Amino acid sequence: MTAFTEMDVRIGLPGTVLFDGPATRLGAVAEDGGFGLLPNHIDWVTALVPSVLTLTQPGGTERVFGMDEGVLVKTGDRVRIAVRRGVEGADLRSLQATVDAFFDAVEDEERVARAALSRLEADMVRRFAGLRGQP
Which residue has the higher pLDDT, 116 or 20? Predict the structure, then answer.
């Protein structure tokens, strides 16, 4: 059995990579609670819930990420995390403001998209109603 001193971690979002690099420790939250991973942890798969993910890089630098739901897969020294949405904060204290701003922007975009969809649906209903009167 090979003893690993660090893990190769990749955090992927749809269409981009949020983080790709080495880590000596990782902490996250699954549906059944918080957990930590070290380089020689057993291979593992779990679903992540919206929460804060922390990782420590070689040298002791800690990085914090606010994440939406996702999946974590650990095999050997590789950890792959796929999440729908996520942001990195400078530290735990500033992460809340970063997450709030990010999700407010996403919420505004979703609101605009829902309004456009409602207009399209109303236009389609009007057009079908107009066809009813034609022979």
Answer: 20
